[in-house]
Design goal:
262 residues, alpha+beta, Arc Repressor Mutant, subunit A, Chorismate lyase, 2 domains, six-stranded antiparallel sheet, two-stranded antiparallel ribbon, 30% helix, 29% strand, elongated
C-alpha cells in the first residue's frame, strides 16, 4: 500500500497528465494541499519533491510550485555527420537555411538564439595527445550555446577545440563574430582544405555539476549525457574535438548501423 506522500504524488501526477493541471499552472500552496489531503505540510513537501525529481513540476523561489512546461526534445542521430558533410560544399544561401540544431529539433533558424565565444588556449596533456601536438601548442577553444527562443535553457553545452596552426590560414575561423557559421565546422574546415574522413564519439552519463544543472535547468536527480566527439580528416589526423554536455531529460540519441549481407 502506498504511503501518504506517494498517494498525494500519484493524485497530482494524474491531474497533470490528464491536463487538469496545465503547463505553467501554479499548484495550490503547501498549506492548502495539506488541508486538501488532510496530511501534514512535511508530507506534502515530500510528495512535491517526488514530482520535481520527475520533472513534472518546478519550484520557483518566492512564487510557489508550477507545472513544468515540456522542453523541446533534441533527437541526435549518427547520420547527422554525413548530412553535415553533404552540405559543407553547398552554396552559402542554402547553408544559411538550416543548421545542426534545426536538424535535431525540427525548429527553424528564426526560432533559435545562438551564442559563441572564442579564445586561444594552450593544449593540456589530454588535448595534446588527441591532436598529436606538443603540450602547450596553441588551440582555439570555442564555446557554443543554442536555445529555443521560447525557452531559457540551451539544448547543449558545447566546448570545441581546433589546432590554431591548421585553421589560421582563414582569419574568419578565429573570429567569433562570424558565428553562427552556415554549414558549421565541416564547412569551416573545408575553407582551409580539410575533408573529414571519420568521426569518433564516446558517450557516457554522470550527475551534472551544480553549474551544469543550473545552466541546463535540470530537474533534481537528472543526469547529463556526456559526448566526446573527435573529427579526423581523410589522412586520419584529428582536426577537431568537442566536449558536449546534453540534458538527460530532453535528449534522444539514435544510432543506425548498416550491416553487410551474408
Amino acid at each position: 500500500m502506498a504511503v501518504a506522500y506517494e498517494q498525494i504524488a500519484d493524485d497530482l501526477r494524474r491531474s497533470i497528465r490528464a491536463g487538469e493541471l496545465a503547463a505553467g499552472d501554479r499548484l495550490a500552496s503547501e498549506s492548502k494541499l495539506a488541508e486538501q489531503y488532510r496530511k501534514s505540510v512535511p508530507t506534502v513537501r515530500q510528495a512535491l519533491r517526488v514530482l520535481q525529481s520527475e520533472g513534472l513540476i518546478e519550484k520557483l523561489h518566492g512564487r510557489g510550485n508550477f507545472v513544468r512546461r515540456p522542453r523541446t526534445v533534441a533527437k541526435r542521430t549518427n547520420s547527422r555527420h554525413q548530412w553535415e558533410k553533404d552540405r559543407a560544399r553547398e552554396p552559402r544561401a542554402k547553408r544559411l537555411k538550416t543548421g545542426a540544431t534545426e536538424h535535431d529539433t525540427g525548429l527553424g533558424v528564426q526560432d533559435l538564439v545562438f551564442l559563441a565565444s572564442y579564445r586561444e588556449i594552450k593544449a593540456d596533456d589530454r588535448l595534446a595527445e588527441i591532436f598529436c601536438v606538443p603540450a602547450g601548442s596553441a588551440l582555439v577553444e570555442r564555446t557554443y550555446r543554442t536555445r529555443y527562443a521560447a525557452e531559457s535553457a540551451p539544448f547543449t553545452l558545447v566546448t570545441s577545440y581546433l589546432v590554431r596552426a591548421l585553421v589560421e590560414e582563414n582569419p574568419d575561423l578565429l573570429d567569433e563574430t562570424k558565428e553562427p557559421w552556415p554549414g558549421g565546422t565541416q564547412n569551416q574546415l573545408f575553407t582551409v582544405g580539410i575533408e573529414l574522413g571519420r568521426i569518433d564519439e564516446k558517450v557516457t552519463a554522470r550527475p551534472p555539476s551544480p553549474e551544469e544543472a543550473d545552466e541546463l535547468e535540470l530537474p533534481p536527480g537528472t543526469s547529463v549525457i556526456v559526448l566526446q566527439k573527435i573529427s579526423y580528416d581523410i589522412n586520419d589526423r584529428a582536426v577537431e574535438m568537442s566536449d558536449v554536455v546534453l540534458p538527460g531529460d530532453r535528449t534522444e540519441m539514435y544510432f543506425t548501423t548498416p550491416l553487410e549481407r551474408w
